[in-house]
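Example with several molecule types.
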Amino acid sequence: MNLPVEPNATQTKLPLEFTDNHESLKILGFWSFLATDLLLFASLFAVYAVYQSRIGMAGPSPDQLFKLGPAVVETLLLLTSSFTCGLAVYEMRHGHKTGTIAWLIVTILLGIGFVTTEIREFVSYIALGDSWHHSAFLSAFFTLVGTHGAHVSFGILWAITLIIQLAGRGLTTITTRKMYMFALYWHFLDIIWVFIFTVVYLNGKI
Amino acid sequence: MSSLLAQLFPPSTTRNMELSADVLIILTSAAIIYYLTRWHRWKYLWREWLTTVDHKKIGIMYLIAAVTMLFRGGVDALLLRAQLAVPNNHFLGPLHYDEIFTTHGTIMIFFMAMPLIFAMFNIAIPLMIGARDVAFPRLNAISFWLFAFAGFLFNISFVIGGSPNAGWTSYPPLTELAFNPGVGQNYYLMALIVTGIGTTATGINFLVTILRMRAPGMTLMRMPMFAWTTLVTSVLILFAFPPLTVAMVLTLFDRLFGTAFFTIGRGGMPMMYVNLFWLFGHPEVYILVLPSFGIFSEVVATFSRKKLFGYSTMVYSVLAITFLSYGTWVHHFFTMGAGAAVNVFFGLSTILIAIPTGIKIFNWIFTMWNGRIKMTVAMMWALAFIPTFVVGGATGVMLGAVPADYQFHNSYFLIAHFHNVIIGGTVFGLLSGVYYWWPKMTGRLLNERQGKWAFWLFFLGFWVTFMPQYALGFMGMTRRMYTYSHGFGWSSLNLMSTIGAFVMGAGFVVMVYNFVWSQIHGEIDVTGDPWDGRTLEWSTPSPAPEYNFARIPVVTDRDAWWAIKQDHKSNVIQIKPQEIQDIELPKSSAIPFLMGLSFFVFSVGMVFSWWWIAVVGFLGFVVCMLVGTFDYDDHKEVPRQVIQNTESALGRLQG
Amino acid sequence: MSLKRSKRAIRFTVLALAIGLSVSGCGNDFVILHPAGPVAASELNLIEITAATMIVIILLVWVLFGIALVRFREKPGNQAPYRPLWDHNRALELGVIAVSVVAATIIAIPTWNKTFALDRIPAGKTPIVIDVTSLDWKWLFEYPGQHIATVNYIDVPTNRPVLFELTANSPMNTFWVPQLGGMEYTMPSEVLPLWLEASKPGLYWGRSGNFSGSGFVHMTFDVHAVSQAAFDTWVHTVRTTKPPMTMADYRQLLKFNWIAPRYYSAYPAATFPAETHGFTLEGGMYMEMQPTPK
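Resulting structure tokens for the full complex:
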């Protein structure tokens, strides 16, 4: 049996966001941005690694300061949100606009849960008098973890603008490209969090 | 009210020099506003320049900004040299001197050399690789406006609020509030953070442009050498600027929010800053010099009428330099007690990185060998580079020999060395590029006779300025001293150095005259290829039309344009009407300018700790982002009829 | 014609150099070229090796460059070969790499050796220890063995290594006595070692090499190298005739000003980080230190 061969068989197999050259360029550009962001976090991690023992005259040590409870909750929330973000991309690849938006909303809610838990954790430390003024260790801790939290907050705002665009315009090369970039960003933050959880919290508790 | 005035105009901004600057700024601004209003140019300025996303215009704006900043940094340099001309001088006091060397260094690196490099990238790269624009035209404009507003921010510190005064490296704890109250240091930090964001975006932009937008047939190993050096410079930028941003932000947190990163007490560690700064700082040295290496490769080959010697060796040398440049940062502070093993590692890596650099120098000489050298001004800058840079490179190796560095560190030997490589390498190269690509930018040739005057004054002035400084290093003179006494024997060499600096200043004046004169009276470049060039930018008319190429060229060889000329002999620039198609181009946008403005407002708020102004600036940024993300109307189609008319007017239409 | 011109250029350069050097008095003012101790001498030796190697490379480049420039100029009737496609030559390229590698090796070997050699005080010599604190804008010197302290002035015995333990209660400075040897940073919350030795008696000037604020230019001090006997006498004189330093005196020193040399017959131990005593040259970058008292 001779099936007619589609002339652009490989072309049509490409996900929508890669079919347009402009959009595909933007994805490469976004990967480059993630590389710089990775280096930003790497620098902050290096600072934290050196500073975690520099607790000043009286300040608490990592072991005294950290409560694992909130950190574990934050980890679960963010890891789950990374999974639901993956589901959103999965729905997008199958051309399901509603499914994409639905999973994106779940992702946002989990993200909001993460940020609120983190803020409550920070507030609980500051309530004990351990703000970032007190020692180099505390400065480094709040800056590293706070930078990640700011990234997540920015991601939540980004996802909201994405939902509006997806709802209004459907799945086009542009909206799918934006969705794909958002997913890259969200997974990237997830990986950074895994490092924060191990290097900062687990390492600090041991 | 009076406390606000005291904050805006502390005593350091009410000295004679600052007040004269105030008068000058007000007069110049008034003149510009009068000119724009009188000739109804506001609309033109906004439509054609402030909102443009065309890489060629952005390149020209970078160039204008860089020359302006070269003037500011140069005046700073002359003030410093005037102060040091004779011992026990009181022309400038220590406070004034400290501010001026800080702004001199910072401006020359971040607001003169960097934008001049980006000017060359923007003007040449898309044309060279046969592209219609950069990958992200709007981001390109954002980069420019972030740089421009950061530069503006940094410069107003002189007359409003007070200049930073801790050197361009700004090591803590000198930059901490305990030792450095006032807003000057905040200016430095905010300006570098904002321009750093712009620079990073430029790096991403040119990386993607070169990787993905080359003309068909232009493989990596067929790229012009300048495209290669731009590519690796972009990679260096991506990896170098994040640590700088972190160093700046952490210092800012210490100053504004009372954290303890680099303080003396509370466990702070100034050494950490030094590491972060030079993790950026050493790759930065190669960010500055590699583009020039690329320009030399183009210029020397063109004016020797010969292929570049050892192309693949050159490529591998550049890659080796890129890789090694991340392993040398500690050589900026061998004397901070890192221990012998660490020092030896970084000393050897420093000596190692000289090998690929040396190989490149020999390859340029061999490119001239068996060629026919034509002495244009562009070529003279490139030629001046070789004997000059080799001295700077050699003294760099001497500094890399660890125990020797213990004697040279922070002395005038070091000052002479890095001016030797930055002026002899970066500046000579970029000026070579300016003279080389000027016709492509403006459509007019620069007057060669004036150019040669500027060249000789600047070149000879350079040697007279900096060679004595090597000797001063051996006499124990250290950097950043505002004065010295008779007894050390430094006087005559310092005087010589000052005389040289003023000769360089004269060279700069002649050069600016050359630019302005040629823009009015210069010969018009009708061919688009005044130098009998080798690369694709010379196949376009001068200046290139908005769409660069009516038809994207197909590349079959290195030196693509040279090969095309060899094959077809004549008539290669003509295009048949039926070959013309509609072209999609990016659309102008106000967002980049407004985003730069928002960052400026935000920065002013941060500098003076006026939080509500910072919030306004931040909200401006958010609005720009939101408008940008919902704006799908960012490109336009140029219909074929328009292109046909343009090409016909340029005399490039067949039949 | 071109040969004549280049000869003239060379003659001019030599003349200019000679004038420049004689005007500046190529004598003792070139402190780095006149070492007064083994450390400075060893460093000068390395400088000479690297300079000689680099001058060879510079001359090689200049000569090749000069020949290329003269021979391949575009002018009517130039008989030199013109080969526009000549773009590689394996032997030549390997030759260039070989020259560079040889030059780098010549410099690398003594660099390696001297870096490790100078990192340690030679065995068999007991050093005298001086604790150095850079302040705004003065140098505080404390002799833990002799229990005396001075400001902006030190006496050291000749032919005996001096171990300087460097710290700062101020922005960073570097401690530098060019005729005795290279510099090292003083940093708050860190103590760094530096050893120097004077092999002949004399008065040597020292200064800071790192900018530390508006009084930076006043960060100077004198090192007086004298025989061991004269040194002991000096210590005795300071001990018996000068006042002791109190904590209040120390706080006076923290003020932002500059002062003439001072001498103290004793000093409070808390003025220098306690944990460095007995410290050898093992110290590294991230040595743990108590914060210095404010």
